[in-house]
Specification:
- The complex is a heterodimer of chains A (345) and B (308).
- With 345 residues, chain A is mainly α.
- Chain A has a domain of 234 residues: Orthogonal Bundle (MetI-like fold), CATH 1.10.3720.10.
- Helices cover 64% and strands 1% of the residues of chain A.
- Chain A has 13 helices and 2 strands, in the order αββαααααααααααα.
- Chain A has a two-stranded antiparallel sheet with strand order 1-2.
- In chain A, helix 3 packs parallel to helix 7 and helix 8 runs antiparallel to helix 9.
- The longest helix of chain A has 38 residues.
- Chain A is globular and about 75 Å long.
- With 308 residues, chain B is mainly alpha-helical.
- Chain B has 3 domains: 36 residues, no CATH class; 48 residues, no CATH class; 216 residues, MetI-like fold (Orthogonal Bundle).
- Chain B contains 15 helices and no strands.
- The longest helix of chain B is centred in the last third of the chain and has 35 residues.
- In chain B, 41% of the residues are buried.
- The chains are: A mainly alpha (345), B mainly alpha (308).
- The interface between A and B is large, with 109 and 113 residues.
Amino acid sequence: MVNTAASGKGKGPAPGAKASAAGPSPERPMTRKTPRSGEARKWGEITLFVGPALVMFLVFVVYPVASALRYSFYKWNGVKAFSEAEFIGLENYRRALFGPGVFKTAYSEPFWTAIGHNFAIIALSMSIQLPLALIIALILNRRFPGRTAVRLIIFAPYVLSEVIAGVMWLIIFDPNGIATKLFTDLGLTPPAGGWFEDQKWGFWTVFFVVTWKYLGLAIILFLAGLSGVPQELQEAASIDGASWWQIQRRINIPLIGPTIRIWAFLSIIGSIQLFDMVWVLNKGGTVGQYSTIASFMMDKGFFRKDMGFGSAIAVIMFLISLIVALLYMFFILRRDNSDSVKKAR
Amino acid sequence: MASTTQSTTVEDIRAAKKARSLRQRFRDYFAQSGIDNSASTYLSVGVALVAVAVTVGPILYLILGGFRSLQQLAENPTGLPSPWVMSNYSGILGSGLFWRQFLNSSIVSLATTAGVVVFGTMAAYPLARYKFKAREFIFVIFTTGLMFPLTVAILPLYLLIHDMGLVGNLFGLILPQIAFGLPLTVIIMRPFIRALPQELEEAAFIDGVTRIGYFWRILLPLARPGMVTVGVLAFIGSWNAYLLPLLLLTGDPHRMTLPLGVTIFQGQHASDTTAIMAYTSLSMVPALIFFVFMERRIVDGLTGAIKG
């Protein structure tokens, strides 16, 4: 996504020229007298500009991430001093992935269930949300009365917090709530155990809520991509007798391919890290029927005070996102990146 | 659009507009905007109506529910409330707790946004324009931050903030949120600053402006579009944040932010559904107002961040 290789080159005079040492400009500021004081001044400025951000980043991002890796090798509840924690090597990982090991209770089964939920959400996003959002975007990609207002409204759920949207749907899907009433009025049978509590329905209800929250984002991104497709292409195809669907299939969809692929990437990463929505909907379900990796981690790691095990789950979650991201970039995004680099040059 | 006479005045157009029937105006709108009055337009309008109904329906149900009594909700959950019950909303708006949480959310979001934008842009400037050895290395450090979501770091982060004595303090929320917002800012702002004309900087230096003076007086105003984009995304992220507040702002609801406050209110008033509906509706309002004014910026930011 970010082209670091292109940065820093081709700007300013050739490296090695003495005058360029302090900056891209060959004209040095008049206040600088000797190269040495210029050099010191430059580093002072760099420290002043980059320092605050770098310190905050190191303290609140890098250090905690590194600590998570460290804690994951220990048996530690996070309450007593870390020096008293017991080093147990990879036991936390074994407990999560395979079986109890040195522990009494096994967590591998609920953990694999949670991982399964994350990947089920990914699969459903690609097989349901993507085609749905795409077809809606293609249909709405034309002039019609009220277009601006419609786009605004469809996009609105994206800015609501997952938590507030979650509470709203908890009320709607209450066993005695409006959804049940509408279902029975239509002659359908609502889930016996309640929308969220039911073993079979719980996961699907949550997926519905997630889709409600994020489908608008996909539609708006696709529409933004479609607005960049040259009108002449569609007109030319239309004059040549192409049908509406042929134009979409052969022109519009291929041309917004990069947008679709990036959306899919964000959706996949977001699905792996899904937490807020699931947690506010009864903490991943009464028996974890729609738990995710993150909700499992918070439940065991924080609320049941097992920092070592929770950290191991965090590391596993990071590794899963990293592997998925690398695979996706390598196999799917690679072509887009080389294309866009060529265009930019 | 309007009259064909040569001596067209604004008044003429207004009068002509008024005189036309609604139907005529509709027809004109179609003709002038290039919308063909065909079946496919009706399909688009139909799909749009369904999408709008699915989006708005639940929110509307929630807002109207806040105007019902519990008995009304049980007897007639759809349709307009009759009579309109004001006590849910007036009780919440008069209690102070909601306003306190609104204030907390505002403080946290504004401080986070300001921090992300100011510190991120400051860091991006030397990374874009200075030449020094560690430059690319520092930039890569920031970009790796994109790979680490808050969720991965949350347990040690909690312990760190606990050790700093900032649990229950809004600063304990603001500082990590700024830190996690920095990578995206640096990544968006660096090419933005680099795209500003080099000659400007050279001219300023010839005129004796220092680097710092150049940054504050010239670069910041020019970089504003980029900063607004970054700021809008940071603001939404912070306003909606849940995980950090969940761990850090425990206990007194008066110290909580709105999303967390909604869940606590829901837990404490479990049987009073219509009160929860009112509270949830009210807590949606600030985000929706912000959204209506900033929609363009948000879309630009998202598509920009994607292309980044």
